[in-house]
Each structure stands twice: as structure tokens, then as C-alpha cells.
Amino acid sequence: MRVQSVQTGAARRVRIGDRSILTAYGKAPVAGEVAVMPLGILGDEQADLSIHGGLEKAVYAYPSEHYAFWQNARCEAGISPLDDRLLPGALGENLTLQGLLETDVWAGDVLSFANCALKVTLPREPCYKFNAAIGFSRASRLMADTGYCGFYLSVLEPGKLQAGEAFELVAGRRSVGIPTLFAAKRAKHVR
What we know:
Blueprint: E1 2-8, E2 12-16, E3 19-23, E4 28-29, E5 34-37, E6 40-41, E7 59-63, H1 67-76, E8 95-98, E9 110-112, E10 115-123, H2 128-134, H3 139-146, E11 151-161, E12 168-170, H4 178-190
Parallel strand pairs: 7-8
Antiparallel strand pairs: 1-4, 1-8, 2-3, 5-6, 5-11, 7-11, 9-10, 9-12, 10-11
């Protein structure tokens, strides 16, 4: 398992339909080592701290393995891959991980890096901003149906990390997995 890419982004206003909204989607890769602080990666911002950010959602991780699925879904929605290829950070994640899927992690597991440790906390829930970032209106529904949600991490041990760095998954108590948490949150919204 390794970090394929590390991304940060600034909150900015964009138009979605007829609304002007604040978002930090479209995070860009960072070169070299980055500082990981208790509230996340240095230089990263979140637009709505009631939903993203804070101690429990300091860092958002997403499996690189799902990028092919989203690129294909965009093509099926009529978005040409030649015009707009998805790059790491396009899904709003800080860490694009290789070799670790949602089905492999449980709340409380720890991603142990050489110079920091991050604890798995919660699945990410899709929102209307995700639809806009991906480029089609069914994207949030597709995330809900597939469970390709990624997961949030809290900072257990601040330090530094970088793209290309390997990490170890240290099992926590293993009482509830990310797919189970995601399904429970989804069921709560469907009622």
C-alpha cells in the first residue's frame, strides 16, 4: 500500500447552476513532503466545516482503483475523456491511495506512515458538490450505490508524508467497517 498522490486546495466560490457556492473541490497535487497537522494537511482548506474537516475528518483518502470506474461513468454520461480526464484530487481527496479499498478498512484502523499516523474514522457521504465536480447529476447516487466513497482520517500522530510513500495498515478494534457505516448512513437518508 502506498500514497499515489497528496493534494491540497483552497476554498473558492464557483457557480453550480444558478447558485454561487463555496467549495474546495479540485485539489491539486503537492510535491515533496507535506506537514500533517491535527486539523489536516498544511495548506488544505474545507468550505463547509459542518460537513468536512475538523478533528474526525481532518484528511480525506480515496482509493486510486476507483478512478477508472468514475472515468467510465463520465464517458457514459457524455463527457469526453479527451476533454476532461480525472486527475488525483478530482474527487476532493487529500490522499489518493493505492492498494487500500473501503472494504479493507474499519473505523479505528491506523494508517502508519514513516513520520505520522492517521486513524480511519468515517466514510465520506456524497453531496451535490460531488455531482458538479464529477460532471453529471447521478454521480452522488452512483457513489451511494457502489460504496466507492473513500474514508476520512483523524490525525493520531502529526508529522509529514509524501506521494510515493508506503504505509502499513494497523488493525484497530474491528467493530465496524467502512462499508457498514456507509450503508447505515445511506439507509438513514433513504427513510
